[in-house]
Q: What sequence folds into this?
C-alpha cells in the first residue's frame, strides 16, 4: 500500500460514519456499484443527447443538392458542322445549403465514330480536375495528372480509372439537350452521384 | 500430462512478458493519477452532509456545457450578416434535421440559465454563503451574472427577425442615457449610428468569442475559489455535530446533482419538442407599427423605464439600477457579521425579497398593460399571427445572384428572351424590379413559374386578382405572340 492510498483510506474513514474495517469494505463496494450505475447513466444520457446533434451535423449529407434536368446546349444545325470536340457551358440550378445557386458546368459536344452527336462531362474521372481539349494533339488532356483521352472520350493513358463520362443527350425542337450529372471519381465503372 | 501443461500455459499467458511490462506500468500509473484526481474531486467534504439545496451550481455548469455544445452546432449553419442571418436561422428551424430542436434547446437553455442562476443566488443569499472568506467567490459570481445577461442580450439579435431587430434597437438606445459618452458607446456597440450588418457582426463576436472567453475564465475562478473556501454547509448547527454528519461529495451529492441535471434535460427536451422556439418574419426597419418586447426576464426593467420622463430619466434608468447593482455586488462588504441564519438578518433579507417582489410586480404590470391597452393588444396579436404565418411557410432558399437567374433564363431560352424584352417594354420592372426580385410595391416573380401553370399565368395577367389590383397591378394588354413570350419568360423563372 503506498502513501497515497493510505491517505485516501484515512480520509474516507474520517468522513464516513463507519468505524471498523469490515464496514468500510461494504461502503466501498456500494460506492463503486453506484459509481458504475451513475457512469452508465451519464454515458447513456450522453449517447441519447448526441442523437439530435449527429442528425443535425449529417443533414447536408442526407439531402439531395441538385435536381437533375435537361439543359439546352445549342441547335443541332449549328453543331452539325462540328469536326473536333467543342466546349459548351450549361447552367445548373443547385441547392447550396440555404442558397439556390446557378452554377456553370462545362461539357464537350463531340461526334462519335458513326458521326452522331455525343456529350462528355469535362470532369476528370480520376480526381475531378477539368479536362481540356488540345487541337494540336487531337486529344483530351487532364492538366493535373496527365490523364489522356481520345476525341470520343476513351482512355488513352495516365491514372484515370475509366474513360470520360458520357452524358445522356436528346434532340427536341432542333435543340440538343443534355442531361448533366456528376459521377463518382476513382471507380472503374461510371456511377452517378445523386 | 497434457492437462497440466495447458494450465501452466494459461498461467504463463496471464503474466505479461517483460517487454510489455513497461507500457502496462505506465498505463497503470496514468490511471493512478486519474484516480487521485477523481478522489480530489469526489471526496470533497460537505459539512452537514449532501443537500438538495446545493444542486444549483452544478446545474448551471451543466447548462453552460449544453449552451456551448448546441451553440457550436448552430454555427455550422448560421451566417452573421444582415443579408443571410434570417435565412440561415429559417434554414436551421425549418429544414435542417433536428435544427428546430437544437435551436430550441439553445434558446430555452438561456432562459433556464436565468432561472437556475436566480435560484443559485437566492440560495447563496439565504444561506449567507457569501460571508467571510467567500467574498471573492461572490464577486466572481456577480461577474458571471453580468456576463450571462450580456450573452442573452447579444444572442437575442442573432436571428435578425422583427423581434430581435426592434428589441435590440431599443436596448442599444438605452445607452444614450449615459451622460457624455452614451452616444459614442452606442455607436461603438452598433458599429455605426444605425443598426445594420456591422451590429450583427459585433454582437456575434461578443456572443461567441469575447463573452464566452470571460465566462470560462470566471467559471474557473469561481469553482477554484469555491473549492479553496470549501462548501459553507447549513446555516446553523454545532460545529461538532456538523463534523459528525459531514459527507463526501460523492456519492450522495453527485446523485442529487445528476438527478437535477436529468430534470433540466427532461424539461428542456420536452419544451423543445412540444413547443419549439419560433422565428418571426425578417427584420424590416421600415415597419412603423411594430411593438418590440424584450425577453421575459428583461420585461420588469422594460416596464421600469416607462415611469421615467425626460428630466428624471437619468436617475431612473442609470442611477437607481446602478445603485441596486452596486449594493448587490458589495453585499459581503456591507454585511460583515458572521451571522448566517436568514431569520436573524431581517434587513438584508427584506431588501432582497423586496427587490424580487418589485421586479415580479413590474413584470405583471407590463403583462396586464399589454393585454388591456387598446393600441397595443391588437398589434401584439397581429405580430403573433405574423410569426405563425411565417412559421407555416416552407423554407425558401436565398437566391444567389437573382439577376443572374433572369439573365440566364433570357440567354438560354430564346422564347423567354423575347418575353424578357416584353417585360422591359411594358414597365413591369417599375414594381417587380429590374432583376424581378420585387420591390416594396410588388413581390418577386422568381419562382412564379413553379407555382402556377401557363393557363393560370395567362388568366391572372389578363385579369389580376383583387389582391393584385389593390396592390396596383393593371391588366396586361398584349398581342397573342407577346403574351406567349412573356408567359414563357415567367414560366422559366424557377
A:
Amino acid at each position: 500500500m503506498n502513501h497515497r492510498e493510505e491517505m485516501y483510506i484515512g480520509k474516507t474513514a474520517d468522513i464516513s460514519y463507519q468505524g471498523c474495517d469490515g464496514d468500510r469494505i461494504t461502503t466501498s463496494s456500494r460506492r463503486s456499484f453506484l459509481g458504475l450505475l451513475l457512469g452508465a447513466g451519464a454515458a447513456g444520457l450522453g449517447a441519447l443527447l448526441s442523437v439530435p446533434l449527429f442528425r443535425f451535423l449529417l443533414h447536408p449529407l442526407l439531402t439531395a443538392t441538385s435536381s437533375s434536368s435537361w439543359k439546352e446546349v445549342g441547335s443541332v444545325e449549328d453543331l452539325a458542322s462540328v469536326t473536333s470536340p467543342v466546349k459548351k457551358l450549361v447552367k445548373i440550378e443547385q441547392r447550396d445549403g440555404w442558397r439556390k445557386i446557378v452554377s456553370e458546368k462545362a461539357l464537350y459536344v463531340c461526334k462519335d465514330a458513326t458521326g452522331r452527336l455525343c456529350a462528355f462531362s469535362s470532369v476528370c474521372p480520376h480526381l475531378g480536375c477539368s479536362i481540356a481539349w488540345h487541337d494540336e494533339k487531337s486529344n483530351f488532356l487532364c492538366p493535373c495528372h496527365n490523364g489522356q483521352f481520345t476525341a470520343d472520350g476513351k482512355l488513352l493513358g495516365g491514372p484515370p480509372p475509366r474513360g470520360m463520362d458520357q452524358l445522356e443527350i436528346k434532340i427536341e425542337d432542333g435543340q440538343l439537350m443534355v442531361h448533366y450529372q456528376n459521377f463518382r471519381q476513382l471507380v472503374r465503372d461510371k456511377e452517378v452521384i445523386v | 500430462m497434457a492437462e497440466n501443461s495447458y494450465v501452466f500455459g494459461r498461467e504463463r499467458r496471464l503474466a505479461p512478458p517483460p517487454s510489455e511490462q513497461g507500457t502496462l506500468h505506465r498505463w497503470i500509473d496514468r490511471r493512478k493519477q486519474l484516480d487521485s484526481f477523481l478522489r480530489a474531486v469526489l471526496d470533497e467534504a460537505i459539512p452537514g452532509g449532501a443537500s438538495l439545496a446545493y444542486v444549483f451550481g452544478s446545474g448551471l455548469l451543466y447548462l453552460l456545457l449544453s449552451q456551448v455544445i448546441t451553440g457550436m452546432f448552430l454555427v455550422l449553419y448560421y451566417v452573421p450578416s444582415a443579408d443571410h442571418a434570417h435565412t440561415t436561422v429559417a434554414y436551421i428551424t425549418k429544414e435542417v434535421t433536428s435544427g428546430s430542436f437544437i435551436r430550441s434547446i439553445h434558446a430555452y437553455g438561456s432562459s433556464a440559465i436565468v432561472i437556475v442562476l436566480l435560484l443559485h443566488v437566492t440560495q447563496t443569499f439565504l444561506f449567507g454563503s457569501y460571508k467571510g472568506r467567500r467574498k471573492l467567490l461572490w464577486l466572481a459570481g456577480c461577474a458571471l451574472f453580468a456576463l450571462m445577461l450580456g450573452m442573452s442580450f447579444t444572442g437575442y439579435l442573432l436571428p435578425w427577425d422583427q423581434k430581435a431587430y426592434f428589441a435590440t434597437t431599443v436596448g442599444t438606445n438605452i445607452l444614450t442615457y449615459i451622460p457624455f459618452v452614451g452616444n459614442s458607446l452606442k455607436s461603438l456597440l452598433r458599429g455605426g449610428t444605425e443598426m445594420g450588418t456591422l451590429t450583427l457582426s459585433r454582437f456575434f463576436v461578443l456572443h461567441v468569442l469575447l463573452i464566452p472567453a470571460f465566462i470560462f475564465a470566471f467559471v474557473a475562478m469561481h469553482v477554484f475559489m469555491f473549492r479553496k473556501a470549501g462548501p459553507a454547509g447549513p446555516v446553523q448547527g454545532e460545529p461538532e455535530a456538523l463534523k459528525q454528519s459531514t459527507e463526501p461529495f460523492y456519492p450522495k451529492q453527485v446523485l442529487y446533482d445528476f438527478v437535477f441535471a436529468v430534470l433540466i434535460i427532461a424539461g428542456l427536451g420536452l419544451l423543445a419538442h412540444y413547443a419549439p422556439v419560433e422565428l418571426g418574419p425578417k427584420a424590416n426597419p421600415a415597419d412603423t407599427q411594430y411593438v418590440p418586447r424584450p425577453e421575459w426576464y428583461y420585461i420588469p426593467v422594460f416596464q421600469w423605464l416607462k415611469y421615467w420622463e425626460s428630466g428624471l430619466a437619468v436617475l431612473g434608468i442609470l442611477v437607481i439600477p446602478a445603485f441596486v447593482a452596486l449594493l448587490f455586488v458589495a453585499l459581503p462588504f456591507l454585511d460583515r457579521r458572521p451571522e448566517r441564519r436568514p431569520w436573524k438578518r431581517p434587513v438584508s433579507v427584506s431588501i432582497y425579497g423586496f427587490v424580487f417582489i418589485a421586479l415580479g410586480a413590474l413584470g405583471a404590470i407590463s403583462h396586464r398593460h399589454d393585454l388591456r391597452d387598446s393600441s397595443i393588444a391588437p398589434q401584439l396579436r397581429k405580430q403573433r399571427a405574423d410569426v405563425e404565418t411565417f412559421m407555416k411557410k416552407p423554407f425558401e432558399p436565398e437566391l444567389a445572384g437573382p439577376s443572374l437567374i433572369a439573365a440566364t433564363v433570357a440567354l438560354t431560352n430564346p422564347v423567354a428572351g423575347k418575353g424578357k424584352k416584353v417585360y422591359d417594354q411594358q414597365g413591369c420592372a417599375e414594381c417587380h424590379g429590374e432583376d424581378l426580385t420585387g420591390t416594396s410595391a410588388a413581390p418577386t416573380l422568381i419562382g412564379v413559374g413553379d407555382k402556377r401553370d401557363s393557363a393560370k399565368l395567362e388568366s391572372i395577367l389578363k385579369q389580376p386578382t383583387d389582391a393584385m389590383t389593390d396592390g396596383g397591378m393593371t391588366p396586361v394588354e398584349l398581342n397573342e405572340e407577346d403574351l406567349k413570350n412573356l408567359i414563357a419568360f415567367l414560366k422559366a423563372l424557377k
Remarks:
- Residues 1-16 of chain B have pLDDT under 50 and may be disordered.
